[in-house]
Amino acid sequence: MTTTAPPRPGPSRPGPPRPYLPRPYLFWLAGAQTGLLGDAVLGFALGWAASGYGGGAAGLVLTALTVPRTTLMLLGGAVADRFGARRVMLAGDAVMLAATVALTLAVAGSRGTPLWLLVAAAVVTGTVDAFHLPASGSMPRRLVPADRLPRALALRQAGGQAAVLLGAPLGGLLVAAGGLAGAAAADAVSFGLVLLVLLKVRPEGERPGALRRAGLLGEAEAGVRLAVGDPLLRAALLLTGAAAGALLPVVSLLGPLLARAHGWAAGTAGLVAGGQAVGVLAVAALVAWRGGLPRAGTGAAAGLCTASAGIGLLALSVGPVGAVGAVAGSTVTGIGSGLFASHLGPLVLGGAPASQLSLVQALLTLAQSLPLVLSTGLLGLLADATGAALPTLLCALATAAAGLTALATPALRRA
């Protein structure tokens, strides 16, 4: 009697491959990140030039950038939805190309830059941003299928974080080599490249003019009513505001104040800020590769709870040895921030009506900006009165409360 040997187990079959992100999106994203890097370079150069006139002048330039960007944001979203996001971006990039070329020619060879010119450049940049940012924010939804949107947004987040990290050092090198003119020329080149990319990329299904029944202000008002009336969008925007007010000032404002209070060197303070950036980049890269959690709302809430633990560790790190804990705390904070942003972004963009994508992105930007302006001033005053540790701990508690509230909110928990 013969026996048959049991069959040898063959190699396990891999699961279905993750679908690639669309090539038009990757092409657009490369151009967009190039433009963002150029903006970061010019932003550093403008701030550096303004600081030569003193703190008041630097504040004036920053205000000239922020005010038009904030006040015109909703109008910019309505314009992009009516006339088309691509058209608005083409117009904005053309204006910025002309403006940066003009700035380059105006300051080339000069020994100094007049303050009025710095203010004018900031006003133009802030105005264009108010129209460009909502349009650009809607592009992933216009170019990527819904099932790949979390990965697309995470890749964009990683690229944006990298551009911000590289922008200041590159801006410093260009200013040292060629002054403000060198930085402005580099930004002009980046806008030229972005224009070439936009001429090649055409979102499918974009239908400008779908909301012509009302005026632009009426469309902006309709977008606000939409966000307030939709349970998921309302909860997501409120959560974004809470996270922005409690999370964003920690590394930018309270981290340096803690470093000075504990006698840490500037290099240590830079490592604290760098830890946060590394955490964000790591999570964004992971989500871009593997995708997000099945329930985006739970992922966003978990990110806030994780970030609160990192902020608490940062607040309690004291003395020279505490610098190691501070770097670890900022890294954990970055991991939580990346987890929050990479899950909440697709939730908001995916839940927006196709006819109001840019307007919802404008609301999202405002939900981040307005609480940040308020909390930064209050936290700075509190730090002056009590030291930086107490406001940092309060930020940890507020971030944890926001995360737990998100878990208790049915619209977010089930999303």
SSE run? HHHHHHHHHHHHHH
SS strand fraction? under 5%
Q: Which radius of gyration do the C-alpha atoms yield? A: 23 Å
Compute the average pLDDT: 85
Cα-to-Cα separation, first versus last residue: 62 Å
Count of runs of 4 or more consecutive helical residues: 14
Largest sheet: none
Which word captures the global form? globular
Structural class: mainly alpha
Helix content estimate? over 70%
List how many beta strands DSSP finds: 0
Q: Poorly predicted ranges (pLDDT <50, ≥5 residues)? A: 1-16
Question: Can you give a write-up of this model?
Answer:
- This protein has 415 residues and is mainly alpha-helical.
- 81% of the residues lie in helices and 0% in strands.
- The chain has 14 helices and no strands.
- α4 packs across α6 and α8 runs parallel beside α12.
- The N terminus is likely disordered.
